[in-house]
Amino acid sequence: MTSQDSPKLPKAFEQQMASILEADEYSLFKAALLSPSNTSIRINPRKSSPLSADTTPVPWNSQGFFLPQRPKFTFDPLFHAGAYYVQEASSMFIGHILNHLQAPKEGLYLDLCAAPGGKSSLLADYIGEEGMLVANEVIKTRASILKENMIKWGLGNTVVTNNDPSHFEPLEGLFDVVLVDAPCSGEGMFRKDVQAREEWSPENVKLCAARQQRILDQTGALPGPEGYLIYSTCTFNQQENEDMIRFLTEEFAYEPVRIPLNPDWGIVETETDTEWGTFYGYRFFPHMVSGEGLFITVFKRPSDAHVQEPKKMKDFKHILLQRTNKAEKHQLREELKLDETVDFYKLKKSFFALKGFWAKYFELLATTLNVKYFGTELGKFNKGQFIPTHDFAVSILPKNFPKHEASLEAAHSYLKKDELELDISQDGWVLLTYQHLPLGWIKNIGNRINNYYPKEWRIRMKLME
Ligand SMILES: C[S@@+](CC[C@H](N)C(=O)[O-])C[C@H]1O[C@@H](n2cnc3c(N)ncnc32)[C@H](O)[C@@H]1O
Predict the structure, then answer these.
(1) How much is the CA Rg of the chain, to the nearest whole Å?
(2) For the segment 209-232, what is each residue's pLDDT rounded down to a tens digit?
(3) 23 C-alpha to center of ligand 1: Å?
(4) InterPro entries under this entry (predicted)?
(5) Which residue in 18, 334, 374, 377 is deepest, having the highest Cβ count within 10 Å?
(6) Which residue of 85, 86, 91, 113 sits with most ligand 1 atoms within 8 Å of its CB, as the best mutation to test the pocket?
């Protein structure tokens, strides 16, 4: 269904917005909310691929681009290679915030409400090789989607967890940046999502605000000294936005942070007076910005806030995970040509890679939270032969394997998990690439080429002629 199929907005919502906006502005706002939304993507800077010429840049994020129309992403092999993320433009403002804060790249970041992973992929880009991100999602099925998206993004700097915010309590003072992109009443998504309009009610706004308070109450002490908490919603009402600034600053010591804006962007700054000073919020209204509705605000912990420094554990006791021994590390480094900065863990027989610097943080997280994924799952040895995973194929780790560049047709066959007819001279594992980006593994066994694309990820839709 498109937004035009159901042009009605809830009456009480209209009244609420009419009290937030001036009368002449309100009609522009309503018209924008009932018009089709833009499509935008954020490119993966570590998997560069050519962009078509007819894109327009997102003003506040140099990796973001508007597309002239919405393509069928499913049929674009680069989408499956993790070359870009389809992300609504307003959300990309977090990149501008991080750049302005000069938040430490070698920091530990938490995205508390992370699925499907748009903002996590942005945080992962920002910290790159140096930092580590915990991308958490409380709903199990959504945590699986988050995991898949972070694997495709391929940076190997993320731990995906499936926990309630209350489970983070033992980790107070551990994080440099915490993002709470809270579940909300979704008013800013009305033009994209008709269901959001149908589910909206003043009672639901109240329920959402109560849930946001609970989440902030459980999260407010997680950033360490001079750490940041970024709170965002995709809704317009005061209860879920400015009232949360008041709540957080009543419960926890925080300092205000002001983010510079270019007036051409059309973003509205709001001021909320509290006992601790004036705090700033940033509102994205669809009639003023090229993007969906969003509210975002930034808080800074004082320098005397509680800090937690994990100690290196003598033993790492976990029901599923094990550290690797010297011989295993040596074997993996030799086989995969990975450098000394990479450390490894073992889950059953499969090996995972993680930057060694983060090992003591990871072990604390793994013994506190329900970890669904971390770093990059590399593969296992079977009778001395290394069997690589798909995750390794699409990761940015160096790969010491032969490559074969696929045509668009061959890439589609591969992604549908069809039988492949390719002219390949090398035997064994071969990395199939499209526009030089890895799509996954194939294996040449002489009379046949085996397709190792993950069954659960295969394209099921019929390709158009
Ligand atoms: C706005 S969405 C997150 C979008 C995501 N940050 C992104 O950019 O792709 C909010 C998320 O919060 C999760 N959620 C729902 N109830 C929650 C709760 N009580 N505590 C924490 N997260 C919750 C939802 O499942 C949803 O994935």
Answers:
(1) 23
(2) 999 999 999 999 999 999 999 999
(3) 33
(4) Methyltr_RsmF_N, MeTrfase_RsmB-F_NOP2_cat, MeTrfase_RsmB-F_NOP2_dom, Nol1_Nop2_Fmu_2, RCMT, SAM-dependent_MTases_sf
(5) 374
(6) 113
Inter-CA distances, 370 with 115, 157, 320, 388, Å: 15, 17, 11, 25
CA 413 / ligand 1 centre spacing (Å): 35
Q: Rounded to an integer, what distance in angstroms lies between the CA atom of residue 451 and that of residue 455?
A: 10
State pLDDT tens for residues 445-459: 988 999 999 999 999
The predicted model gives 340-347 an average pLDDT of: 97
Q: Which whole-number Å values give the CA distances from 156 to 62, 131, 358, 434, in the listed order?
A: 22, 10, 12, 21
Query: Structure tokens of 246?
Result: 């008041």
Q: Which helix (H) or strand (E) holds 449?
A: strand 449-451
Per-state percent for the chain, helix, strand, coil, to nearest 5:
35, 25, 40
Please name each of the domains of the chain with its CATH number. Answer: 3-300 (3.40.50.150), 401-457 (2.30.130.60)
Query: pLDDT at residue 1 above 50?
Result: no
Nearest by Cα to 230 from 299, 133, 278, 134: 299
Q: What angle do CA 251, 255, 259 make, to 5 degrees?
A: 125
Q: Using pLDDT thresholds of 50, 70 and 90, give the confidence band for residue 464.
A: low
Whether the Cβ atoms of residue 202 and residue 194 lie closer than 8 Å to each other:
no
pTM of the predicted model as reported, rounded to 2 decimal places = 0.96
Separation of alpha carbons 165 and 218, rounded Å: 6
Residues involved in catalysis: 234
- What would the pLDDT profile of 419-435 be if each residue is shown by its tens digit? 999 999 999 999 999 99
* In contact, 39 and 69? CB cutoff 8 Å: yes
Q: Which residues line ligand 1 (CB under 6 A)?
A: 91, 113-119, 137-139, 142, 165, 181, 183, 211, 215
Which backbone phi and psi does 384 adopt, to 5 degrees? 80, -10
Which tens digit of pLDDT belongs to each residue from 15-55?
A: 999 988 988 999 999 999 888 889 999 999 999 877 877 99
The rounded Å distance from CA 136 to ligand 1 centre is 9
DSSP E strands: which ranges in 316-375? 321-323, 342-347, 350-355, 371-374
Give the residue numbers of the binding site.
113-119, 137, 164, 181
Long-range Cβ pairs for the range 137-140 (8 Å, 24+)? 137/113, 137/161, 137/162, 138/113, 138/162, 138/163, 138/164, 138/165, 139/115
**Whole-angstrom distance, CA of residue 14 vs CA of residue 8:** 10
Under DSSP, the state recorded for 254 is -
- Give the bridge partners for 294, in sequence order: 284
Residue closest by Cα to atom 1 of ligand 1 = 183
